[in-house]
Write a structure and sequence with these properties.
It contains 13 helices and three strands; from the N terminus they run αααααααααααααβββ. It has 310 residues and is mostly helical. The protein has three domains: 134 residues, Ankyrin repeat-containing domain (Serine Threonine Protein Phosphatase 5, Tetratricopeptide repeat); 102 residues, Ankyrin repeat-containing domain (Serine Threonine Protein Phosphatase 5, Tetratricopeptide repeat, Alpha Horseshoe), CATH 1.25.40; 71 residues, no CATH class. It has a three-stranded mixed β-sheet with strand order 1-2-3, with no helix packed on it.
């Protein structure tokens, strides 16, 4: 351990002269504010990435767990819970176990779900980075929840769109995964009190099987509030696959996420009437799905139009 790391540890309040002190160990003589927290954890908590990088440049135990009475997080799990994609990347490069779980069975993908709606950069690393392939996208914690269940519960629409999008080179979450009581993410959203329930349900309808029932024999329609129930019959078509949507024989490439067919996503196709991603709650949703306007009817079958992400 270098003098620079020791000086940083001392500034944080660690007793660096204690026997066997190291940045990758829990120090029993640490002050109460640092009890059960190894310096490597503290570097993540304080978002000091320069120090973390220096620590990781030396041999160290990168699976050391917090002993502060929380969830026994490894540095990798802590970085995920802190929504710190930089730290996650550094730890994956060092060989951190991406399939690690906390004491309740939550993976890093569970832990990056947040009501702040800022966990997507971490989720992208976990779902696309080859170094994180050991992580189970549909892992259930001890309560039976997957990451998709949590995203639905907190109302993170963009996270759900990313978790469920079938895109080349990315792993996909199961929209019909069930908790211990049989609830799917859609059922969780329907029973929630989130303010953006309609938007969350709208996303989940693209991917969910409405015939799935919970252990009480209830399906999504049974659980839906009155104002939403009548819309469930308007279930969206199957999800976009491999970042491509087939529309009347015409292949339309999308960017990283599904295109809504609107002017914001399709600035060069202003007359595009692609209704695939329209909300089932929109009054305008009366025209047929997956069709272009008459202005585009002359497009040759099989031609491709690139859609730019705004």
């Amino acid at each position: 351990m270098t003098e620079e790391i020791l000086d940083w540890c001392k500034e944080q309040g660690y007793p660096v002269k204690a026997s066997n002190f190291s940045h990758d160990r829990i120090c029993e003589m640490a002050p109460s504010a640092l009890k059960g927290i190894a310096p490597i954890h503290q570097a993540i908590k304080t978002n000091d990435m320069a120090v973390l990088e220096k620590m990781l440049s030396h041999d160290c135990n990168i699976e050391v767990r917090l002993e502060d009475g929380s969830q026994d997080l490894t540095p990798f799990l802590l970085a995920c819970s802190e929504l710190n994609a930089h730290a996650v990347n550094l730890l994956l490069a060092k060989g951190a176990k991406s399939d690690a779980t906390d004491r309740t069975g939550k993976t890093g993908l569970h832990l990056c779900q947040s009501s702040k709606f800022e966990g997507r950069p971490v989720a992208k690393l976990l779902l696309k980075d080859p170094r994180a392939m050991a992580l189970d996208v549909d892992a259930h914690d001890q309560f039976g929840m997957t990451a998709a269940h949590i995203a639905a519960r907190v109302g993170d629409v963009r996270m759900l769109e990313y978790l469920l999008l079938d895109q080349h080179g990315k792993r996909v979450a199961n929209a019909n995964a069930q908790q211990q009581d049989g609830s799917t993410p859609l059922m969780v959203a329907l029973k929630s009190n989130i303010s953006n329930k309609k938007q969350v349900v709208d996303v989940l309808l693209r991917y969910s099987d409405l015939s799935v029932k919970n252990k009480n024999g209830e399906d999504a329609k049974k659980l839906a509030p009155r104002e939403i129930r009548r819309h469930l019959d308007n279930k969206r078509p199957r999800r976009i696959s491999e970042s491509t949507t087939v529309v009347s024989g015409t292949s339309v490439e999308t960017s990283e996420e599904s295109c809504s067919g609107c002017k914001r996503h399709c600035p060069q196709l202003k007359d595009c009437k692609l209704a695939l991603a329209e909300s089932v709650f929109s009054p305008a949703r009366k025209r047929p799905l997956r069709k272009y306007s008459d202005d585009l009817s002359s497009m040759a079958v099989g031609s491709s139009s690139s859609i730019l992400q705004a």
